[in-house]
Amino acid sequence: MTKDLYARHRSVLPDWLALYYDDPLEITHGEGRHVWDAEGRRYLDFFGGILTTMTAHALPEVTKAITEQAGRILHSSTLYLNRPMVALAERIAQLSGIPDARVFFTTSGTEANDTALLLATTYRRANTVLAMRNSYHGRSFGAVGITGNRSWSPTSLSPLQTLYVHGGVRTRGPYASFSDSEFIAACVADLKDLLGHTRPPAALIAEPIQGVGGFTSPPDGLYAAFREVLAERGILWIADEVQTGWGRTGEHFWGWQAHARSGPPDIVTFAKGIGNGSSIGGVIARAEIMNCIDSNSISTFGGTQITMAAGLANLAYLLDHDLQGNARRVGGLLMERLRAVTAQIPAVREVRGRGLMLGIELTRPGTDRADPEAASAVLEAARDGGLLIGKGGGHDTSALRIAPPLSLTVAEAEEGAQILEHALRRIQ
Ligand code: PMP
Asked: Domain map of the chain by residue range?
């Protein structure tokens, strides 16, 4: 049955729509932190459909909100007042820490980042943009133009002039051997040097922890240090919180807060987890920036009643159950367990991340060379053991990505760590 579906998939969908696993998996339903395949096999889900199932699968509160809303109206467009959209915007504006914040809803992270670029370039009357090496911000023509990751750059054509800045990856690149403070100083010096050679940029866009890039991040404080340099020149700071937002990183509600001496970014973008699978993306910016465009701009499907109802219920559950605190506690424990079980495995170069956003980078033992085959083999072995994880990384996709729903229990964390240990041992 699944094989037949795979054949149909191959004959009608694009070749570049990559599937995980030699025998691709059809997930038919889920509950809590588990999903089931078409053959009825159960898996512990440590990837949540790319960090999108944020609270839990089939969360009754979200299901109820969607069902009730579906019985009333799904969509009316932004031409009419929309109560759930206003309510979710109010909550997000307040949570953002951005003064006089305005929120614009889109249908994806890509569209959110495109909007942020539109705002920043219009506000600053500039089309030069700073992005980080190893970044990923989406698949549109605009977003691809700020993607610093070769495997996700299908074209070099771009409406923007993009300059890539050092610092998103702590343990690789020319500054890898430096101490944290030397690393930050070197990246800041590089940024200043770059700014001396270019037209004034509109903005710097950065993921606080790089997602597709393999859960890599700079030392805490780098973006605050960058911010000082940027603010002196009026350059905006855009934080792409598509993966890091809503408490996933445990210690912080937003990923940028790990850097935040100088307060919130000028623009924040979000998507993925807030809708728990319904298509919500968005941009938050202070009014002066959000209102700088002088023509109409709509996203027909942005902020539909059905997605906003899901988002409101999902966010309420997250806050009421302190899932950020859970991500900190259970994520901390999972990190400890993963460090312990991988300590004796030579293929493991690094265990990194924070909260429930953890990466394990694999290299060919005895070298610093990425080992994408090993990453794929561990993915397969983990699946055999009943665990779904992801992979990523700018260096040939050799990092395992672990990002379960934020309601993960201690027992599930222990179980997942054990399955991963067996999977890693199997590929040795
Ligand atoms: N920004 C980041 C940091 C992402 O990880 C992604 C998706 N992987 C996007 C933007 C694009 O989001 P979407 O796929 O919803 O367009």
From this structure: 2-58+322-426, 64-320
* Ligand 1 atom nearest residue 279's Cα: 15
Q: Could you tell me the distance, in angstroms and rounded to a whole number, from the CA of residue 20 to the centre of ligand 1? A: 18
240 CB less than 6 Å from ligand 1?
Answer: yes
Q: Which of 111, 136, 151, 268 to mutate to test the pocket of ligand 1 (most atoms within 8 A of CB)?
A: 136
244 within ligand 1 shell (Cβ under 6 A): no
CB atoms within 10 A of CB 58: 15
Question: Encoding tokens for residue 47?
Answer: 């990837």
Answer whether 0.90 is exceeded by the pTM: yes
CB 235, CB 191: distance < 8 Å: no
3 state DSSP class of 407: coil
Atom 13 of ligand 1, residue of closest alpha carbon: 109
Q: Which ligand 1 atom is at minimum distance from the Cα of 211?
A: 5
**Cα(87)–Cα(340) distance, rounded to whole angstroms?**
44
Give mean pLDDT, residues 157-165. 95
Report the C-alpha gap between 381 and 378 in whole angstroms: 5
What confidence score (pLDDT) does residue 30 get? 98
CATH number given to 64-320: 3.40.640.10
Atom of ligand 1 nearest to the CA of 272: 15
Q: Kindly indicate the confidence band of residue 261, based on its pLDDT and cuts at 50, 70 and 90.
A: confident
Task: Transcribe 39-100 into DSSP letters.
Answer: TS-EEEESSHHHHT--S-BT-HHHHHHHHHHHTT-S---TTS--HHHHHHHHHHHHHH--TT
pLDDT tens digits for range 225-258: 999 999 999 999 999 999 999 999 999 999 999 9
- Rounded to 5°, the CA angle 247-248-251 comes to 60
Domain 2-58+322-426 -> CATH class:
alpha beta
Tens digit of pLDDT for each residue in 378-412? 999 999 999 999 999 987 889 999 999 999 999 99
Tell me what pLDDT residue 237 has.
Answer: 98
Which protein residue has the closest C-alpha to ligand 1 atom 7?
A: 138
